[in-house]
Design a protein that fits this description.
This protein is of the alpha/beta class. 35% of the residues lie in helices and 14% in strands. A hairpin with a 6-residue loop joins β3 and β4. The protein starts with a strand and ends in a 10-residue tail after the last helix.
Length: 574
């Protein structure tokens, strides 16, 4: 690696050639404040909070876009620099609504933190406040343009990382806003509800739509039997949302906390992840043996499914007809479980704790009503659950470890790894291999499909037949895979696509901020959960076996199709 030498605040610093001044400073442990900058997005230099002095330059320069060069002399903490940063920040604050105490991002707002760190104790400028209506049209997200500081992070995330381009700049000068295409509402454009925009927004301009009040109301209704399911990724992220280290495994404490909130039963989405593998695995086997569109593409990620409906409707026949684990759980809870408990479907209120905002959209899809009522009644993100626990005054770290309720809380390690990119593929291969070959796998770890590479490929020998697979996470990576399928250039038989970077552990409802290191810590923890489980193959889940014996009959049966499978809807790009 070619290096350069520059001086920052009197210190000689070595940096890789091609680094910006900001990157070189951070690598040397020198902190420069930023707002529009995000390490996983293209730098834009819009906010001017990262300005520095460079010897020989005519004016202050934005360090996030200024290339570092050999012999450069940089000053990051002069009186001129500090005053310029404070002025830029005060001008932003002059137009910003002072609603910090009631904002969802209070205490976790980059604008708020910068004001504190830069010593802004008063705003010397009187600015006009915007009065733009909130966009609450989406079942997943809320946009408040009045809190937008035009940093452009959401635009870059939606375009560069997710390849959706649902947001863009509209207007000029004071009239500039970030809006959906053609100034429509989010619900009217090809937004996939992934919520990645909310994870990079530094303020409260984009947040998840909250259903906390509806859940509190259900918990207080004696006529409702309220059950909760927790997604695989939440067990390694709820603790983080409450101040613990990223990747903390808090499964037992989360179960205990949910009981103390008043849920009648605490169940596990890992159960229905195992159920998904039974259905999706047999669907793959059926297509391999009897024909059907290949590759089969997984359908567990609702943001990815909606992306396919908007941008690749011609590939919908390739998508598995299986509902996601969230929706399978709701269908089983309101039929099989309700019958066992002597309850009507409408009296069972199903709450999901998800790492995902797109799950909120998915739960409201009209076809997700296997029992005649919605499969899932309310979806809360990891962040929303953390707020509920704080509101209830629950000392999370002090809670004992408790077990999920049976039968819908019994699961395997295969269900747990659904939370990481490559996890659905690995879980499916564990079952498909043993069902097809009748042999026991010597090693359960398909490491070729693990990790944070954007697209991963592997081959699996199924009793003499080679099955080629691919895994993609993040929709820009998904596009690469889909374009190869569409062009007839792909020879895969099975493909996993996850909408969000890193898979569900990096979902739009997860703790903020998130970066590659935090995703890696959560993924590592997910595989630790898997390795610690007594059962690690979905087809060995005794509760799933009983469900088939007592109620469904067999994978892909008529009853299974009625409850656990669905269809998709081609949608317009515009």
């Amino acid at each position: 690696m070619e290096t350069i030498t520059l001086t920052i605040d009197g210190r000689e610093v070595q940096a890789a050639k091609g680094m910006t001044v900001l990157e070189a400073a951070r690598a040397a442990g020198i902190k420069i404040p930023t707002l529009c900058y995000h390490p996983e997005l293209r730098p834009e230099g819009a906010c001017r909070l990262c300005v520095v002095e460079v010897k020989g330059a005519k004016s202050l320069v934005a360090s996030c876009v200024m290339p570092a060069s050999n012999g450069m002399e940089v000053y990051t903490n002069t009186p001129f620099v500090r005053e310029a940063r404070r002025t830029a920040l005060e001008l932003l604050l002059a137009n910003h609504p002072f609603e910090c105490l009631t904002c969802d991002r209070n205490g976790n707002c980059e604008l708020q933190t910068l004001a504190h760190d830069l010593g802004v104790r008063e705003v010397r400028y009187q600015g006009e406040k915007r009065n733009v209506p909130k966009d609450t049209s989406s079942p997943a997200l809320v946009r408040d343009p009045n809190k937008c500081i035009l940093c452009g992070r959401c635009v870059r995330m939606c375009g560069e990382v997710q390849n959706v381009n649902a947001l863009g700049y509209v207007g000029r000068g004071w009239d500039t806003l970030i809006l959906p295409l053609f100034n429509r509402n989010l619900a009217e454009v090809a937004c996939v509800a992934c919520g990645q925009c909310s994870t990079v927004c530094p303020t409260g301009a984009i947040t998840e739509k909250s259903y906390v009040d509806e859940v509190w109301k259900a918990l207080g209704d004696p006529k409702k039997h309220v059950v909760v399911q927790t997604a695989p990724a939440t067990r390694v992220s709820v603790g983080e949302a409450l101040g613990m280290a990223p990747g903390s495994i808090v499964t037992g404490k989360m179960v205990a906390a949910l009981r103390r909130l008043g849920f009648d039963r605490v169940f596990d989405t890992d159960f229905s992840a195992d159920l998904t593998i039974m259905e999706e695995g047999h669907e793959l086997i059926e297509r391999l043996k009897e024909g059907g569109p290949l590759p089969l593409i997984t359908s567990c990620s609702p943001g990815w499914v909606k992306y396919c409906e908007h941008f690749y409707p011609e590939l919908l026949p390739h998508v598995s007809t299986c509902k996601s684990p969230q929706q399978m759980f709701g269908a089983v809870a309101k039929t099989y479980y309700a019958e066992k408990m002597g309850l009507k479907p409408e009296d069972v209120y199903v709450v999901s704790i998800m790492p995902c905002t797109a799950k909120k959209f998915e739960a409201q899809r009209p076809e997700m009503t296997a029992s005649g009522v919605p499969d899932v009644d309310a979806v809360l993100t990891t962040r929303e659950l953390a707020r509920m626990l704080k509101e209830a005054g629950i000392d999370f770290e002090g809670l004992p470890e408790e077990e999920y309720d049976a039968p819908l809380g019994i699961s395997t390690g295969a269900g747990a790894i659904f939370g990481a990119t490559g996890g659905v593929m690995e879980a499916a291969l564990r079952t498909v291999y043993e069902v097809v070959t009748g042999k026991t796998l010597e090693s359960l770890d398909f490491t070729a499909v693990r990790g944070l590479d954007g697209v991963k490929e592997a081959s699996v020998d199924l009793d003499g037949k080679t099955v080629k697979v691919a895994v993609a996470h993040g929709l820009a990576n998904a596009k690469k895979v889909l374009d190869r399928i569409k062009a007839g250039e792909a020879d895969w038989q099975f493909v996993e696509i996850m909408c969000c970077p890193g898979g569900c552990i990096g979902g739009g409802g997860q703790p903020i901020p998130v970066d590659r290191e935090k995703r890696a810590a959560r993924i590592k923890a997910i595989y630790e959960v898997d390795a610690s489980m007594p059962l690690r193959k979905s087809h060995e889940n005794p509760a799933v076996q009983t469900l088939y014996k007592e109620y469904l009959g067999a994978p892909l049966s008529e009853k299974a199709h009625e409850l656990l499978h669905t269809h998709y809807t081609p949608r317009s790009r515009f």
